[in-house]
């Protein structure tokens, strides 16, 4: 405030000197100094008051960012009350409502979250310019609320509206368009409508390449999701092409030990198996085993699942010694917490023994699998087919 006050003093003094005689300079200076000091004190008081009334909203946003959703909701609800009573602009009140809805969504308070974000949207009647971009963002959050409840058709409708709104803006944001198209594709994919998802994935991939570049990690992620959708839709050749390219980008941009690389190998292995290329499928899982063994804090159960899948593949390839080794490695880990996964692995081991003409051992493995299933309920479980799409 100091430099501004000095400048204002100088300007005011010169103004008074231009209209006052030399005999009135002293009086003019006194008036000028009093005026500037009053303005400065008034500004400081206004600034402190404005900071206090924004503090709750800032605190709520900070709590939201660090994952303290309950505390964020409390702060943002108080901030909203303050904003309504203090005459905040519609845009500021809408921003508080948006963050409040996100805090509620994160706590699975879906009804409250939907009502809150709908209130925010009604505060933005102008769908052009900045309000249009802000409204599209709020529609995205509304779609997330529907998606989290498994209401994929409604999420698809809202995302279509969000995309249309962004595209209608004078200067659409390329990255936002790419992300929204990706979310729309995933909404169809998660609803099980894989054929309908594919063209949206294709368009999202084009937008990602335009917005981020063909070799960016975001493009690699988009390729991986597109490949998984194509695999689900039964287009194995195109799925493999996209998944292989995604893996190359992810290894280059994220590093060979990145979780995204491991997930990419899972998808690639499944696509190879379903296309009948069992040797290639086994090769991907062998790579995953190497990655898992290098990771100090890796999940042992995930490693056991890879062993299970390799055992099954090796059995299909009639590599019985390797199949038995992998099955026993999986059982060693799964034994610590017996469940359907262990029963499935024991059944694979029984088939290996049968093919090796070790009928007594096969019968023992089958019996143990049966007892485990009886104790935990349910049927045999294929863990790898539960990998995220």
Q: What can you see in these coordinates?
A:
By secondary structure, the protein is an all-alpha fold. The chain has four domains: 1-106, no CATH class; 124-170; 179-189 and 197-287, Serine Threonine Protein Phosphatase 5, Tetratricopeptide repeat (Alpha Horseshoe), CATH 1.25.40; 299-389, Serine Threonine Protein Phosphatase 5, Tetratricopeptide repeat. Helices cover 81% and strands 0% of the residues. The protein has 17 helices and no strands. The protein has helices at 2-19, 25-66, 69-86, 90-106, 110-122, 129-148, 152-168, 174-190, 194-212, 217-233, 236-254, 259-274, 278-294, 300-316, 320-334, 340-355, 359-376. Helix 3 (69-86) packs antiparallel against helix 4 and helix 7 runs antiparallel to helix 8. The longest helix is centred in the N-terminal third of the chain and has 42 residues, at 25-66. The chain starts with a helix and ends in a 13-residue tail after the last helix.
Helix fraction bin: over 70%
* Overall radius of gyration: 31 Å
What structural class do you assign from the helix and strand content? mainly alpha
Query: How many angstroms does the end-to-end distance come to?
Result: 56 Å
Unreliable stretches (pLDDT < 50, length at least 5) are 384-389
Quick one: how many beta strands?
A: 0
Q: Could you spell the SSE succession in H and E letters?
A: HHHHHHHHHHHHHHHHH
Main sheet characteristics:
none
Q: What's the structural domain tally?
A: 4
Shape: elongated
Please count the helical segments: 17
Q: Roughly what fraction of the amino acids lie in strands?
A: under 5%
Provide the residue-averaged pLDDT.
85
